[in-house]
Amino acid sequence: MNAKLRNDIMFFRQSEDETLYEAWERFKELIRKCPMDGFQHWTQMEMLYNGLNAHTRMVVDTSANGTLLDKSYKEAYEILERIANNDYRYPTTRVEAGRRVAGAMELDVITSLTAQASSLTIMIKSLKRLATMQEMKEADIYENIKSCKLSLVFNHTNI
Question: Where in the numbering of this chain does the Retrotransposon gag domain appear (predicted)?
Fold first, then answer.
């Protein structure tokens, strides 16, 4: 049973007709049932986030004023609690009068574009991190070269 629970958590997916509140409560229940000997809090948050549908992820990221995964675990948890509770108290299952319901093809295109935009955002952030790390390495190398030159100059004048 633990293996099934761990898989359910690791490969968590929000159902098509499931609200954020329902998905969040279901995920928390899985966490409560499974002894979490291998998942850290932040890993749990990533598994939940990656399992949300594109629309829900967009709502969550908007509420986080950026990507939810850029927040600390505590901040991310509080954001999800707030949105899910609001979703529970004020559900939006009604279609406004006179408003056309989007067809499956339209939703697929929107979902696909949203997912692509989210993926691009994550890739850009990763590239920025790599560039920053590269700049730091280059700065360290430059400092080492300067130190070596100074050492050579001092050693040469002492001979």
Answer: 3-53
